[in-house]
Amino acid sequence: MSATKREEVSSHLRYIRLELREMHQMLIKEDLLPDLSEAKEVHAQLDALLELLSDKRVKNLKGQIEKF
């Protein structure tokens, strides 16, 4: 994985971790459910991360298939 992609993945993961931590605190301390839009935002971030990682995986698979 290139350094740029690695930094992008790390950035996504940091943001997602922070958002999930805030939602968890809301559940524990305030006994409140997170706003639906917040949950959708985190889900979108996870989708973006999956797409970023999947793109790399697809390229690797194509390269491996071409070797055979």
Secondary structure layout plus pairing:
Layout: H1 3-29, H2 36-67
Helix pairs in contact: 1-2
Explained architecture:
The chain has 68 residues and is an all-alpha fold. The protein has one domain. 87% of the residues lie in helices and 0% in strands. It is built from 2 helices and no strands. Helix 1 packs antiparallel against helix 2. The radius of gyration is 17 Å and the shape is elongated. The two termini are 22 Å apart.
- Biggest pleated sheet: none
Our measurement of the CA-to-CA distance between the termini, rounded to an integer number of angstroms, reads 22 Å
Number of domains: 1
The parts where pLDDT drops under 50 for at least 5 residues are: none
Task: Offer a concise description of the structure.
With 68 residues, the protein is mainly alpha-helical. The protein is 87% helix and 0% strand.
Keywords:
2 helices, 68 residues, mainly alpha, elongated
